[in-house]
Amino acid sequence: MSAGELFYRVLGEPVAERGGRELPLGPPQARRVFALLLLEAPRPVSRDRIVDELWGDNPPPSARVQVQGLISGLRRALRPAAGDQPIVTRGASYLLEARPEQTDTGRFTELSAEGRELLAAHRFPEAAERFREALALWRGPVLAGVPAAPEVAAYWGDLRLAAVEDRIDADLGRGEHDRLVPELRDLLGAAPYRERACGQLMTALARAGRIAEALEVYRRWRDRLVDELGIDPSPAIRALHEEILRDGAGLAARDYAVRSGNPVPSQLPPGIPDFVGRGDLVAELLAELAPDPARGAPPVLLLTGAGGIGKTSLAVRLAHRVADGYPDGALFAFLRGTTNEPRSPHAVLGGFLRAFGVASDAVPADLDESAGLFRSLVHGRRVLIVLDDAAGEAQLRPLLPAGAGCAVIVTSRFALTGLEQGRCVPVDVLSDADAAALLAPHGDVTSLAAHQVLDYCGGLPLALRIVGSRIGDRSGWRLADVAAELSVERKRLDWLRAGDLAVRSSVALGYRQLAPESRRLFRRLGLLPAADFPAWAAAAVTGGEPGPAEAALEDLRARHMVQPAGRAGRMPRYRVHDLLRSFAIEEVAAEPEHERAAATESALSGWLWLAEEAANRMPHSVLRPPPGNASRRRPFGEVAEPMSWFHTELPALEAAVSRAADAGMGETAWELAVVTSSYFDHSGLYSEWWRCHQRALGAARASGCERGEAALLRGIGQIHLYWDDFPEATRTLEESYRISERIGDPGGMARALTGLCVVSRSTGRPGESRTRAARALEIFTGIGDILGMAHLQTSHAVASIHLGRLDEAEMALDKAWRLCVELDDPHRMALVLRRQGQLQLRRRDPEGAMSCLRRALELLESMADELCAAQVRLDLGRTYTTLGERQAAARALIDASSHFTTAGNRSSAAACAQLLDSLA
Q1: In terms of C-beta density within 10 A (0-12 exposed, 13-18 middle, 19 or more buried), how is residue 42 classed?
Q2: 638-660: burial string, b at 16+ Cβ within 10 Å, e else
Q3: I need a labelling partner for 417 at 20 to 30 A (CA). Which of 320, 558, 796, 824 fits?
Q4: Is a pLDDT exceeding 80 seen at residue 500?
Q5: Confidence of residue 741 (pLDDT cuts 50, 70, 90)
Q6: If we measure between CA atoms, which residue out of 728, 727, 724, 726 comes closest to residue 694?
Q7: How far are the Cα atoms of 2, 684, 735 from residue 711, in angstroms, in the given order?
Q8: What count of Cα atoms within 13 Å lies in the side-chain half-sphere of residue 85?
Q9: Exposure b/e, 86-123, CB count within 10 A at least 16 = b
């Protein structure tokens, strides 16, 4: 499959990918439609069936239009770089053109069939590999997160179980019966009536020489069948039972080489009974740890991650699951790597040697001799070794065996990248689903309180276990009580402790081991506005050059106190876990206030400089005022592509506005909010825009920044215009005008008037709109604001079109066009072309209108301005309707409608719906 080809998945959450990257399919209803089309592919699915799937017996009147909009959105999401659209229309039905090799279900079916052919030919290793490839395609329950018919889930669930059993048959054929016993017990526990799984477990036990256990499995399974279902076992499994009774030893594939007189250590600590999650990772690592006679060296798994992440629990879980495959012993050592006195390798080796019966006085005094004796002792044996909390590579090297029959599991907070032997396995926080499963015994995980607790704990198993322990320790406590306690950030770490478990002490262990520069950087991360940050921000808060900051960041990364979070252009990004960030905030509070204020201002001024750089390379907005007096400082970062930069930095920018507001930096708060509105406007993120401006507005008022207050009110007024809330738009724009007039800011007055022009025009008062536009144009002309002049000439033209003064409109648009050329502003040119198209349509020249609108659409699409492009498509829909091209009109209107609905632009969405109804 080529890198740019689509691949579809339903074995888990429904997903479409191109080149391994997930495509945004849109809202939940769109995902349901996508899943339905994919499951039925290559058969068409009728529009009526889609309506029935989405709404059942109560579809809304606009159901057909909504389905068309959902299909249009999916087509945009799946739109290929070149070639045909994968979703095609067949009459009143839709069809997703997907070949079997483009779907996980098709690939699963193909690999399973190949595996069964190889199994029949007794080519067991190849068969096992095919089945593993097939099962690796499953990422969770089929259609996870999407309502699906029970029979669909049951059908694919049965196929998956059959593939698991086929793979087990292949592994049994390879002689891996020892390793399979724990897995088969789990499988039979999950599906207790599966006869094939029962027979496989009996076979594996019998071949391992555990005849009594094999017979006991059959007895219990037969009793369950008779007692609960009232049926007898089949002749096939009865025959297997009789064969084991008659000649069980004959089923054994190998004898265990147990050395008489040698102790068999069993040092594994008990596992956590409620261990949940990490299913895919556990399955992957169990396969790697499984005994393999063909292996040339022992597997060494290096489980690395932050404190409290669950490394030890995972290691012990894995060890218990594979222990049956290592009959010559299981060793465990706590290496105390995060304490001030890590255990010496010699002391650890002494314990291991004594566990194998070596007398204390026979343990060599030399480290190298002890390591040599240990390797000799375990050579030829199958021994499992768990080394918990390693301090580094030097501590580990003497403890690693050379014998291929052994296996080692290591846990550490350090990256251990310098170890020559072993595979690094980063352990991250629990997924949302796994975290919820861990919390489930303590309350309703679908409740708001549960979501808040999960958010505060950030998927950290240690924090979640403390929550469970504290609920269990308090009669009558609920998740809502826990959420209330954890909502106070400064008290969060105080509350997250139970007995000898505490998040703060876990983090403090790692913090105390840091070098001074790394420790200073870590605590100053608590001054950054968000947990996700670019590398330049580290240099900003420490006030140094990028080199030392990068070295300190790398040290924190190696110790898992920060995690890489991708790149923005050439700049790496990092993330610090929320609870670790709470610890950093506590630590940095001890620094002098003036140092903290200077570091905060340094970071915020860097974001402001970069945001202005990005906004200056986007389409110019008449709403954006000249820069204010906030501090801005060029950081070591850069802006590669403005829209991508804003998309990546948006959470940090929103948090930066709040941080500036909390710090009393009203000038910085309003400037950050206003410059970011360029991105909000271009992307249709009206709710985020409103939230950010409201936060900054309070800060601007508290700081007496009247110019900023007026600018923010204009932005809020523009949002209300997009939401068709004209009374609120009028109130905020008029307030902005009064403030600008009072402080002597003519540009601010003119910008407020431009919004009021739209209010007048949209509420049926074109004459008033022309008057306001003329006044604003006069002001812009007086101060030489060419962009404002171009905008107002266009606004004047629109009002003139509404009044039927078409010649005046044409003159205004000609002036606007010349100003756009002077500005070299293609975005503004596209907006003028759109209005020229409206003018030509009003003059009954649909062909002329079509020419202008197509040119406008081409320009807007080249700039990825989907919302302005949607307005042009609405005008194209009107023009196609005038020309009698009904299908083209419907396509344009459906495409536009989906954008308006998503953005909350009700009037434009209603106009689309009205035109579509007229076409029906």
Answers
A1: exposed
A2: ebeebbebbebbbebbbbbbbbb
A3: 320
A4: no
A5: very high
A6: 728
A7: 50, 19, 10
A8: 13
A9: bbeeeeebbbbebeeebbbbbbbeebbebbbebbeeeb
The DSSP element (H or E) to which 301 belongs, if any, is strand 300-304
Q: Using an 8 Å Cβ cutoff, are 909 and 65 in contact?
A: no
User: What would the two tokens of residue 883 be?
Assistant: 């020309």
Looking up tokens 């502003």, which residue turns up? 825
pTM above 0.70, yes or no: no
Residue 388 DSSP SS3: strand
909: Cβ–Cβ under 8 A, 6 or more apart, which residues? 897, 900, 901
- Which tens digits make up the pLDDT trace of 463-473? 777 877 777 65
Number of C-alpha atoms within 13 angstroms, CB side, residue 889? Answer: 22
CA 629 to chain centre: 37
d(CA 380, CA 385): 15
Q: What are phi and psi of 723, to 5 degrees?
A: -85, 5
**pLDDT digits 0-9 by tens, 743-755:** 999 999 999 999 9
Cα separation, 522 vs 588, in Å, equals 9
Among 552, 571, 570, which Cα is nearest to 562's?
552
Which class does domain 514-591 fall in? mainly alpha
Task: Report the C-alpha gap between 309 and 140 in whole angstroms.
Answer: 22
Instruction: Give the helix, strand, coil percentages of the chain, each rounded to 5.
Output: 65, 5, 30
- Ranges of each domain in the chain: 6-102, 279-426, 432-506, 514-591, 849-919
**Percentage of the chain surpassing pLDDT 70?**
95
CA 526 to chain centre: 23
* Radius of gyration, alpha carbons of the chain: 34
Q: ω into residue 534 within 30 of 0, thus cis?
A: no
Instruction: Tell me the two tokens of residue 798.
Output: 């629109």
Tell me 905's DSSP state: -
Q: Which amino acid is at 110?
A: E
CA distances 238 to 198, 199, 227, 785, Å, are 11, 9, 17, 92
Pick one of 3.40.50.720, 3.30.420.10, 3.30.420.40, 3.40.50.300 as the CATH number of 279-426.
Answer: 3.40.50.300
Q: How far apart are CA 778 and CA 783, in angstroms?
A: 9
Interacting residues of 79 by C-beta distance below 8 A, sequence separation 6+: 85
- H runs (alpha helix) in 621-665: 642-662
**Type of residue found at 10:** V
Query: Which residues have CB under 8 Å from 861's CB, separation 6+?
Result: 869
CA separation for the pair 594, 601 (Å, rounded)? 11
Can you spell out the DSSP letters for 167-230? HHHHHHHTT-HHHHHHHHHHHHHHSTT-HHHHHHHHHHHHHTT-HHHHHHHHHHHHHHIIIII-
Q: Are 279-426 and 514-591 equal in CATH topology? A: no
- What is the average per-residue pLDDT within 830-841? 91
pLDDT in tens, 215-230: 899 999 998 888 888 8
Query: Where does 248-378 have alpha helices with state H?
Result: 279-289, 311-322, 345-355, 367-378
Backbone torsions φ then ψ of 93, nearest 5 degrees: -130, 165
Q: What is the pLDDT of residues 566-624, one digit of tens each?
A: 776 677 888 888 888 888 888 888 889 999 999 999 999 999 999 999 888 887 888 88
Q: Which class for 453: exposed (0-12), middle (13-18), buried (19 or more C-beta within 10 A)?
A: buried
**Cα of 354 vs its chain's centroid, Å:** 48
pLDDT computed for residue 259 by the predictor: 30
Which CATH architecture does the domain made up of 6-102 adopt? Orthogonal Bundle (1.10)
Contact 861, 895 (CB under 8 A): no
Q: Where are the beta strands (DSSP E) in 477-632?
A: 497-498, 501-502, 532-534, 563-568, 571-575
